[in-house]
Design brief:
Distance between the termini: 167 Å
Helix content: 25-40%
Largest sheet: 5 strands, antiparallel
Number of helices: 2
CATH superfamily of one domain: Immunoglobulins
Strand order of the largest sheet: 4-1-6-10-8
Structural class: alpha+beta
CATH class of one domain: Mainly Beta
Strand content: 25-35%
Order of helices and strands: HEEEEEEEEEEEEEEEEEEEEEH
Length: 413
Amino acid sequence: MNSFKKIALAMVAAMTLGTLVSTPASANTLSVVATTWKADRTVSGVLTPDYDTPATAGTAVGTAIARAVPEDNKIDKEDVVRFVATVAAGTSVTASATNATIVSALHSDAAPVSSASGSASLTIATGTGTTATFFVYTKTTAIGTVVFTNGVNTTTFYVQGTVGKIHTLSVTAPASAAAGTKQDVVVTAVDTFGNKVSAKEITATVFANTGTLDTATVSTGDTLATFGQATFKVTLPATGSTRTLITFAPKTAGDAVSATAIAGLATPVLAPFAEIAIRDMAAELAAANAALAAEKAAAATAKAAADKALADALAKAAADAAAAKATADAAAVTAAADLVKANAEIAKLKADAVTAKVAADKALADAQAAAKVELDAVKAANAKAIADLKAAFNKLARQWNKSNPKARVALVK
């Protein structure tokens, strides 16, 4: 019985281990194949246009897969790198791009796909299948990346756009310059998406002999400093013209897109012009000198007027100051006289006060002396009256006491 249980447990363990190992191995499968359209592909001597292995692997920066930018605004098979990812059934594949765009289908009249279509990231669920197809295009000549992710697995490819035909010419020129001088006029060529176009000839034409070009045709540069630019040197006429007008255009019509605008894209600019105003430096100098002389004369007139106004103001100020001083001096004399008069009045008042005080003191002393004499007299009269009253009482008291010995009264002392 124990042996049977051990065998059963061993079988269960083996089945479990097999499940754990086989499932991740299947889920982690990711294989991506890149192909590009080969219109000139020949198979067994027969022209067979189809998707084929690109000229470069695209697995490193140095082997980026090149595709033309979609300057017709249609994302066709010629514009894309087709990536087919093979994964485990029922899983999803995510593609994420930088400097590139991902679409899931190509252009058709029924379902247009333009240079505005797509996104930087796209996830495709394989459902019951095992493959997912992505189409990647780019509008820039900068190297881009496309990273494919399935579970923990990633695969990276590099792509790069090849510049299109000239779509826009822009001109940089001085707004004005001195007559008879040589000036640089720079023409920049870019394709539909703003990528600079190098090694293309640009032709310049001077209107009505209003300048002389060193050379009428210049190729756009291919160095870091001159990439996509053509520099023309024009000598302005010394006399007879007020402006120089130069028009520009690609020398070879096939180097540029059609002048007719494509729906959804900017209108081509293939015949710009530069207009330089010609300055007569001698005339400008004479005019400047005349203006300077007039300005100096005006300044001198203004200075003379200002000096006179200052002198008049100073004279008036001096006269006003003298008048004010005279008034102040007269007021000071009057004030001094008033002060003397006031001091005299004060001295008199002081003397009168002293005399009044002496008189008041004497009157007070006399009044006090008279009051004392009168008081002394009153006191003496009162004392005599009291003494007389006592004497009269005592005399009567004695008579009483003599007559009434048993009812004697005390004498007053």
